[in-house]
Design brief:
alpha+beta, Alpha-Beta Plaits, four-stranded antiparallel sheet, 4 helices
C-alpha cells in the first residue's frame, strides 16, 4: 500500500472556492484508476495565515503510483496551480507501507502487511 500525501495551505479568502474545486479534482484523481481510496482533512490551527488541508490518496503499489505520475498527474497539478496561483503553498510525500516486523524477524520481504504471527 502506498500513501500519496499532499498538504495544501490555502489563503482563507480562497478557501471556499478551493474546497469546491477539490471535490471535482479528487474525483478526477480517483478516476485515473491508480488510487483505491482517499482522505480529505482540515488541519488546525491556521499556519502563517493560511488554512491547511491534508489530502491522502491510497494506491495498491508503487507501480500504480508511478503510473499515475507518468499518465496525467502533471495535467491535474497544472490545472490546480493555474486556478489558485499565488493563493496556496503545498508539500507532498510518498509513504510505502511495509511490514518491517515480518521482514526482520521472519525473513519476509517486508511487503506482506500484518501477515505475521508472534511466537512468544
Amino acid at each position: 500500500m502506498v500513501n500519496y500525501s499532499v498538504t495544501i495551505d490555502i489563503l482563507p479568502t480562497r478557501e471556499r472556492e478551493w474546497v469546491t474545486y477539490m471535490l471535482q479534482h479528487i474525483k478526477e484523481v480517483l478516476d485515473t484508476g491508480h488510487f483505491v481510496d482517499f482522505t480529505f482533512k482540515k488541519v488546525k490551527p491556521l499556519v502563517d495565515g493560511y488554512e491547511r488541508y491534508l489530502i491522502e490518496y491510497f494506491s495498491e503499489s508503487m507501480l500504480e503510483y508511478d503510473r499515475f505520475e507518468a499518465n496525467g498527474a502533471s495535467k491535474l497539478r497544472a490545472d490546480h496551480d493555474t486556478r489558485f496561483a499565488g493563493a496556496f503553498k503545498y508539500g507532498q510525500s510518498i509513504t510505502e507501507y511495509t511490514d518491517v516486523l515480518n521482514a526482520v524477524f521472519y525473513g519476509g520481504d517486508g511487503r506482506s502487511l500484518f501477515k505475521h504471527e508472534l511466537a512468544l
